[in-house]
């Protein structure tokens, strides 16, 4: 119990991420919602809302509660996300376990909470909470965070945690990736502790460096791995080897992680 006036030890936070995937185009701004589910202030689970819903649908399909015909015939069962990660954190061991889908493969790797926070003196009210400023660096970016001491949960969105209060807002100093709390409250629903595919498919255990390298290759050449696995193909009648196809994701040049975690 955290003394927050709730009868349940579990909580869920909804964050909104506003981000700029193209560093050369200030008008290309995207948004996505994320969920942080906190279990007894010991474990937490983080993923995009789209990932949560899509993964839950796969669970219904696996157990036979949703047929293939129903899934294919009704678009309400299909959800998309630009962030295909599922993150678990142990607030006791200070370690994160990350599941990530890249192209055809599923990876799992663990990283310690290495963030070094510098506490500031500035205060502000954000999303209705009195917040204190803190700064850190992560994966090639410098960040400014605002945490709420009145919510004594040392957690936050993505891999940002370890402050003496829930992170209400955090963004890099260029405002290219900014998470802001939209909702916080008690949670009595099902807690998703790992992605559905982890229980039915082979998940490769790897290092953070290997996953970063594989992710970067896929981001820069998304058709490369497809061609290696399936051979040359076409998209809309155009060969995937054509430069117009090969460069179709040139806008995806500004990922959240610019460096390997921990470097």
Note down, in words, how this protein is organized.
This protein has 263 residues and is an alpha+beta fold. It has a domain at 10-115 and 176-246. 17% of the residues lie in helices and 37% in strands. The chain has five helices and 14 strands. It has helices spanning 49-62, 68-73, 208-220, 222-230, 243-246, and strands spanning 10-19, 30-39, 43-48, 85-90, 95-102, 105-112, 118-126, 129-138, 141-148, 166-172, 177-186, 204-205, 234-235, 238-239. The strands form two sheets. Strands 7-8-9-10-11-1-2-3-4-5-6-12 form a twelve-stranded mixed sheet. Strand 10 and strand 11 form a beta hairpin. 23% of the residues are buried. Pfam families: Porph_ging. Residues 223-246 are annotated as: Disordered. This is GLPGLI family protein.
State the order of secondary-structure elements, H for helix, E for strand.
EEEHHEEEEEEEEEHHEEH
Total number of beta strands? 14
Instruction: Estimate percent helicity.
Output: 10-25%
Strand content: 35-45%
Shape: globular
Q: Specify the oligomeric state.
A: single chain
Radius of gyration: 20 Å
